[in-house]
Amino acid sequence: MSSTPNSRRTEQTGQPAGRDRPLEQPAHAEQPEQERAAEAAGRDSGEVERLRARVEELEDLWRRALADLDNLRKRMTRELETQRRAQRAEVTAAWLPVLDDLERALQHAESDPASVLEGVRSVRDRAVATLRDLGYPRRDDLGVPFDPARHSAVAVRTDPDVPPGTVVEVHQPGYGDDENQLRPALVSVSAKAGD
Questions:
Q1: What is the pLDDT of residues 153-165, one digit of tens each?
Q2: For residues 20 and 22, what is the distance between their CA atoms, to the nearest angstrom?
Q3: Axis-axis angle for helices 115-133, 33-111 (nearest 10)
């Protein structure tokens, strides 16, 4: 007799192998369906409660973060306004000596008209020094090559003694440097003869 699986018989039943036992079912298959459903519902209920608690925790963290962000925004707004007031006061205080010089020049104008010119020069020098101290030095760029970042050309002149593209006259001085410019200088620029 050959020993193929279908031809083998078990010793106890005499039945072919594989037919003497019912198919094995998982252990939970023996439990009534209602018990399995109740157990699954219990697990699901626990999981749902855990997830709900986690959502509430995250919502609380989110609300706190929003409140912190709002408080930071308000604090930064207050600090920025405080700094602006301090800077305005600093700049205004820097200009007070210029105003004092103007008042002195006006007081002396009636008693000594010739001193008015000297007073105005003094006030101008004080104003230029104040601008320099605030970070905006005066630029009278006569005789330098024209630079569109620092100069604004208002006229072109033919001048055989000066190389083309050179500033030959400053109509209005510029203030500030390349990084911090209040205004460019208004200048006339030389050109080649015949241009």
A1: 999 998 888 899 9
A2: 7
A3: 160
Contact 98, 120 (CB under 8 A): no
Q: How far apart are CA 126 and CA 98, in angstroms?
A: 6
Q: What is the DSSP pairing of strand 181-183 with strand 174-176?
A: antiparallel
DSSP string, 8-59: -B-TTT-PBTTSSSPPP--HHHHS-HHHHHHHHHHHHHHHHHHHHHHHHHHH
Q: Identify the pLDDT of residue 109.
A: 75
Whether residue 5 has pLDDT greater than 60: no
Tokens of 146: 């024209």
Distance CA 136, CA 179 (A): 10
